[in-house]
Design brief:
Elements lengths: L5 E6 L3 H13 L5 E4 L40 H23 L9 E3 L2 E6 L1 H14 L9 E3 L2 H7 L13 E6 L3 E3 L1 H14 L3 E3 L2 E8 L5 E7 L4 E12 L5 H8 L8 E12 L2 H4 L5 E3 L13 E7 L2 E11 L12 H4 L3 H13 L1 H12 L2 H11 L9 E4 L3 E8 L3 E5 L2 E5 L5 E6 L7 H12 L1 H14 L11 H14 L5
Parallel strand pairs: 1-2, 1-11, 2-8, 4-13, 11-20
Antiparallel strand pairs: 3-7, 4-6, 5-6, 9-10, 10-11, 12-15, 12-16, 12-17, 13-14, 14-15, 17-18, 19-20
Helix pairs in contact: 1-5, 1-12, 2-14
């Protein structure tokens, strides 16, 4: 064991650890940082571009942020909140581009209109109400709405070509949407961490985390290549290991993790790189989820730009696997069960029968059924043009609930010890898009004594941190235009 404790240990080489490391290096450049990644490269799990849809989640097209209430109303508050968070991420990335700490923006972010597309009278009525609730919000300025197949076909021909003319359809379009390659972004951030002195330890698996008598954390680490173990001490530990975070936080023994469980959901996408097909679709188009489907399984037909090449992605087709990571094991789910989370997990199973039924149906779906789902979006789709790829694992949060015993929570949750010496992130979408505000929350919660002194540096990097834009139309327009210019995006 090294005699000198590491100031900050980051576990997991994804967008969360990379973002937190980048922030800490700028507010406290004298601290030592080490990042441990189990695999031979960073960004190989949820941050890998083919393991997620790359949507810059700004709630421009995702209907699950604005569900229809029992009385038929739609509330834009959640959508506005998600958009506000994404603006903070964009500002941080723009600051790093300006400073030369990130490469050319088009290597990790590109303009891609965000659309919502629905079919049927009731869905059209709902989408119209959603549009009316958002169109005058400053962060959603410029959103368009149409029920005219000709107009929708101009936006993206694949949605209307050879569609039944009698079918009622509607769509919204926001030209300010983006496609983000979170894999490329993560690699660029980690490269910058390394240039600034952080130690990047690939092929290193953290086996356990234990508190020591002197208040530090002892980490047992295995080098996966030579299978040689070693131990290190750390003053602060962040567990950004995606689906692996739950197990490590449980091993750390902090009381704050008691009662939390994980519900793993696997996924697949159909993908095509045929230039003739790709050229006809320049958008991320989200629809409505099937009954019982989790929000992360909302069907969407997306333009993706990965390593400079454009492709189309459709899905996800959700399924069930007990693995918490794509490279995990079949023991991940049963190994996460503890006396403290057994009741919440059983309560979730009891109250989410529709979800379980949906996942089983998706798991049993054959190629023809998958193609039929695509053809509901794109009537001209042919099976031979599309390949099936496996997406990343997502682990939804299960937690205690006073009334129900346990609930399944969609989104992300930061778990931190009372003294702030260890923190981790559970959950999934829209995590990557909102990595910056989530990691700002980690800084504020875990370093309360230092945080106020860091605010000037953080504000210089993220000008609207601590405030909101949607209630200041002129500032919203100015900030979004500025970051769009720096990141080479169209508004």
């Amino acid at each position: 064991m090294s005699n000198s404790p590491i100031d900050v240990v980051l576990i997991g080489g994804g967008i969360m650890s990379a973002t937190l490391g980048a922030l800490i290096q700028r507010v406290q450049p004298d601290w030592t940082i080490r990042l441990y990644e189990n695999l031979g490269e960073v960004a190989q799990e949820s941050s890998n571009p083919w393991n997620n849809a790359g949507t810059g989640h700004a709630a421009l097209c995702e209907l699950n942020y604005m569900p229809e209430a029992a009385d038929g109303s739609v509330d834009p508050a959640k959508a506005i909140s998600i958009n506000e968070q994404f603006q903070l991420s964009r500002q941080f990335w723009a600051s790093l581009v300006t400073a030369g700490d990130l490469p050319e923006p088009n290597t990790f972010i590109n303009s891609t209109p965000h659309m919502t597309f629905v079919r049927g009278r009731d869905n059209v009525r709902y989408l119209r109400k959603r549009y009316e609730a958002l169109k005058d919000q400053p962060l959603f300025a410029g959103m368009e709405y149409s029920e005219d197949p000709a107009v929708i076909g101009e936006w993206t021909p694949l949605l209307t070509k050879k569609r039944n003319a009698k079918q009622r359809i509607a769509a919204t379009r926001a030209a300010s949407g983006t496609d983000v390659d979170f894999g490329a972004l993560t690699r660029a951030l980690v490269d910058d961490l390394s240039r600034r002195g952080a130690d990047i330890a690939l092929n290193h698996k953290v086996r356990s985390i234990k508190r020591t008598k002197d208040g530090l954390w002892r980490l047992k680490v295995l080098h996966m290549v030579g299978h040689t173990p070693h131990e290190v001490k750390a003053r602060f530990v962040f567990v950004g290991a995606g689906g692996g975070a739950l197990h490590l936080l449980q091993k750390a023994g902090i009381p704050e993790i008691k009662g939390f469980g994980g519900f793993p959901i696997s996924g697949q996408f159909l993908r095509t790189s045929d230039p003739k097909i790709v050229a006809q679709h320049q958008a991320k188009v989200y629809g409505k989820a099937a009954v019982g489907a989790p929000p992360m399984s909302v069907p969407h037909l997306d333009t993706r730009v990965v390593d400079g090449e454009a492709s189309l992605l459709f899905g996800p087709y959700a399924g069930f696997s007990p693995k918490f990571l794509k490279t995990g094991t079949w023991w991940d789910l049963p190994g996460s069960v503890r006396p403290s989370n057994l009741i919440p997990m059983l309560a979730v199973a009891k109250d989410n029968f529709d979800l379980i039924k949906y996942l089983v149906g998706e798991l049993l779906a054959n190629r023809a059924k998958k193609m039929k789902a695509l053809q509901e979006f794109m009537p001209t789709a042919k099976s031979e043009d599309w390949e099936l790829i496996t997406a990343g694992q997502r682990v939804q949060v299960m937690k205690k609930d006073a009334k129900k015993g346990g609930v399944l929570q969609f989104g992300t949750e930061v778990i931190a010890s009372a003294d702030g010496s260890i923190a981790g992130l559970l959950g999934a979408s829209p995590g990557a898009s909102t990595a910056v505000p989530i990691m700002l929350d980690v800084l504020k919660r875990c370093f309360p004594e230092q945080y106020n002194g860091w605010v000037p540096t953080l504000t210089a990097l993220i000008p609207t941190m601590g405030s909101t834009l949607n209630d200041r139309p002129k500032d919203a327009q100015k900030v979004m235009a500025s970051t769009a210019e720096t990141l080479h995006l169209t508004q």
